[in-house]
Amino acid sequence: MLRHPIAALLRVLWASAAFLFTASLVGIAAAVAASAVLLGFVVHRLAGLIFHLSLAAIKILGSVGLGTLILTSAFLGAVRARQA
Fold it and tell me: What's this model's pTM, rounded to 2 decimal places?
């Protein structure tokens, strides 16, 4: 028979509390790690989307700029031809 059953019970409760606390810390760490991985994936996808949209915008602006240059040179050529 135990000499101090309450002390033994307190030791068991303390060990259980320590185990649960450690398990909860591990669970929190796992949740934070999973959130970081998910956030990294989202940021990576978003960065890729922004990059491709930027390339598309550069292509469009380049085409508009080239078209403007062609129209301007044609207009100036017509003006010169008319003046001559």
Answer: 0.50
Tell me the C-alpha to C-alpha distance, in Å, between residue 21 and each of 7, 10, 30, 33. Answer: 21, 16, 14, 18
Two tokens, residue 41 = 């994936």
- How many helices and strands, by DSSP H and E, does the chain display? 1, 0
* Assigned token pair, 40: 């990294």
Beta carbons within 10 angstroms of residue 18's beta carbon: 10
At 34-77, the pLDDT tens digits run 999 999 999 999 999 999 999 898 888 888 888 888 888 988 88
Residue 55 C-alpha from the chain's centroid: 19
CA–CA distance, 63 with 47 (Å, rounded to integer) = 24
Say if residues 8 and 2 touch (Cβ distance below 8 Å): yes
